[in-house]
């Protein structure tokens, strides 16, 4: 009996040694996403599936969370290795500003940006508003208190020489904001989300809306000061009654990664993601908006060395 145990132990030891030497040790990672009813969770699940199926000995699990701010804290604490986040919130966390004032997170890096989340500025037809410069004295919802939307509103209004003191500010959800415009208790609102947004779609079908552009010198000024913004266009026809294109600014959904994750793993992840975009697009509509070339735009937090290696390999970085 003792001899049998000794042989079994020897076999087990040899198996573990072989696994270690052959590099077959499984790499199990958590990808923090967002709420189950939002975009981040299913989109993150699609990315996790690509990584788990395309990269040998890697298993990535998409985890539902409270989204960007929580995700970045999870990475910083070592409770997740990866996350989908807004690039502006990531900037705040890395630099210890705005909603992260006094709380600088140092263990976060970037793999790349994914798709635009557009700052959509809607007003009622009765408001008479034609430009953000007309917001003075108006009733405007700027998103939930302390949210990324509220900071977007603050920064964009700043580009037009306005502050929150110049408006009658409300902090409402997207649905509440649209309802406020519909029932006449609000003149306008800021909504940062993918296009189209369901709350604005419903508003367009009921009371109607006008989209206010962010363009010209003001847009240039905002983008120069806050490098995480990119210029975009909301196509005419996105919402009922909006027949012409509207210039807008967008922040970008971004893949954040722990700075402690090894270069080889992050290189493999970056490569697998961008070499399987057709699969990502099949799994989720937002996948159609993802490209390697766009992934290096809107980034203000350093890239992980593994991501840099891939971008250099395909000629996007020197």
Indicate the topology:
Layout: H1 2-21, E1 27-32, H2 40-54, E2 58-63, H3 68-77, E3 82-86, H4 87-95, E4 108-123, E5 139-141, H5 148-159, E6 168-170, H6 174-183, E7 188-193, H7 198-206, E8 210-211, H8 216-225, E9 230-234, E10 246-258, H9 263-274, H10 277-283, H11 292-295, H12 305-313
Parallel strand pairs: 1-2, 1-3, 5-6, 5-7
Antiparallel strand pairs: 3-10, 4-7, 4-8, 4-10, 9-10
Helix pairs in contact: 2-9, 5-8, 6-7, 9-12
Describe the structure.
- Helix content is 40%, strand content 20%.
- It has 318 residues and is α/β, with parallel strands linked by helices.
- Strands 1, 2, 3, 4, 5, 6, 7, 8, 9 and 10 form a ten-stranded mixed sheet that branches.
- Helix 5 packs across helix 8 and helix 6 packs parallel to helix 7.
- The termini are far apart.
- The N terminus is likely disordered.
Tell me briefly what this model is.
With about 325 residues, the chain is an alpha/beta fold. The chain contains twelve helices and ten strands. Strands 1, 2, 3, 4, 5, 6, 7, 8, 9 and 10 form a ten-stranded mixed sheet that branches.
**Average residue-wise pLDDT:** 91
Order of helices and strands: HEHEHEHEEHEHEHEHEEHHHH
Strand content: 15-25%
Which residue ranges are poorly predicted, with pLDDT under 50 across at least 5 consecutive positions?
Answer: 1-23
Number of helices: 12
Per the principal axes of the C-alpha atoms, what is the gross shape? elongated
Radius of gyration: 23 Å
Classify the secondary structure makeup into a structural class.
alpha/beta
Distance between the termini: 63 Å
Task: Report the helical percentage.
Answer: 25-40%
Instruction: Report on the biggest sheet.
Output: 10 strands, mixed
Give the total of beta strands.
10
């Amino acid at each position: 009996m003792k001899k049998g145990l000794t042989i079994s132990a020897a076999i087990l030891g040899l198996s573990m040694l072989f696994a270690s030497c052959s590099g077959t040790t499984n790499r199990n990672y958590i990808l923090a996403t967002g709420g189950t009813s939002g975009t981040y969770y299913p989109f993150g699940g699609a990315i996790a599936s690509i990584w788990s199926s395309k990269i040998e000995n890697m298993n990535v699990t998409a985890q539902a969370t409270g989204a960007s701010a929580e995700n970045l804290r999870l990475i910083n604490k070592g409770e997740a290795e990866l996350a989908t986040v807004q690039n502006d919130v990531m900037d705040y966390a890395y630099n210890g500003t705005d909603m992260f004032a006094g709380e600088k997170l140092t263990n976060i890096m970037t793999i790349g940006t994914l798709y635009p989340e557009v700052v959509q500025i809607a007003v009622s037809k009765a408001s008479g508003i034609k430009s953000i410069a007309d917001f003075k004295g108006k009733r405007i919802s700027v998103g939930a208190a302390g949210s990324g939307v509220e900071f977007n509103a603050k920064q964009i209004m700043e580009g037009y020489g306005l502050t929150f003191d110049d408006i009658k500010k409300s902090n409402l959800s997207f649905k509440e904001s649209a309802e406020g415009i519909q029932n006449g208790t609000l003149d306008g609102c800021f909504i940062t989300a993918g296009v189209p947004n369901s709350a604005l779609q419903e508003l367009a079908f009921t009371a109607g809306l006008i989209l206010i552009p962010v363009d010209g010198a003001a847009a240039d000024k905002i983008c120069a000061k806050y490098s995480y913004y990119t210029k975009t266009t909301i196509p005419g026809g996105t919402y009922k009654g909006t027949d012409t294109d509207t210039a807008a600014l967008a922040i970008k959904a971004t893949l954040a990664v722990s700075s402690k994750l090894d270069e080889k793993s992050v290189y493999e992840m970056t490569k697998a993601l961008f070499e399987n975009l057709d699969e990502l697009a099949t799994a989720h509509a937002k996948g159609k908006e993802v490209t390697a070339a766009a992934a290096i735009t809107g980034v203000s937090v350093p890239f992980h060395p593994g991501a840099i290696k891939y971008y250099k390999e395909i000629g996007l970085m020197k």
